[in-house]
Design a protein that fits this description.
The chain is mostly helical. The chain has one domain. 71% of the residues lie in helices and 0% in strands. The protein contains nine helices and no strands. Helix 6 runs antiparallel to helix 7, helix 6 packs parallel to helix 8 and helix 7 packs parallel to helix 9. The protein is globular. Keywords: Signal.
Length: 241
Amino acid sequence: MVCSAGLLVVVLDCAGQLTQRFPHLAKATLDALSDFLLDPSPTLSRLNRQLRRLDKSRQEIIHSLTAQRGTHSDPYLYGLPSQFAELARIERHVVYYQRVLDHVRGAAIQSLCRVLLVNNGLIETFLADLSRRIFNAAEGGRDTNLMYLNTVYCLGHMGVELADVPHTQELVLQFLQQNLNPSKLLPELEVSTLEQLGCMVIAGCVSTSMLPVTQEHSPGCVPASVQFCDQMLITFAVNRF
């Protein structure tokens, strides 16, 4: 699984480059990348489950150490060396597997954004398919958390990579509000969602170059459409707490 991750990253990267050279393959490539990220693929699924197992083991050790600490006044008297060694080993594995998962997922998302840049007309089609998948996954499953996390990262990258495509950021933010509100999101995704929203702010929202040429503005006045994304981002972030 881990050994083939490097080859998988190359294949995913080539999928995006292939569409740039042969635009007529955009729809087929988009469907394949969507399935890879949102089904999700066996590789992503196994990496995610391994991370969850490691996290569960880590929490058990931490809970055990915390319980032992309560019975000793001297911090050097609680906990066995083997427990600390096992905790350090688990931490190393968590960092390693998380890095692999992020690398593979990032390659797929980057290629997906390349496809959407080649054919902007597929953006709304992709968001509609994404909404359908989220609705069908609402009942829950062992990989639901991974699908939601992949969705958040994918939307965040779209908001950054496609920032110059008119109305894309508005569509992304509306999707987040309608389909990934706090009542549907898992608590562990809160930080990731806000992180992606921050990246979209840094990337810049609707610029004046996208506004109608005939529109006139008074000096010092920021058009309402320019403020739209910023207002939605702030409102969405505040409502999460």
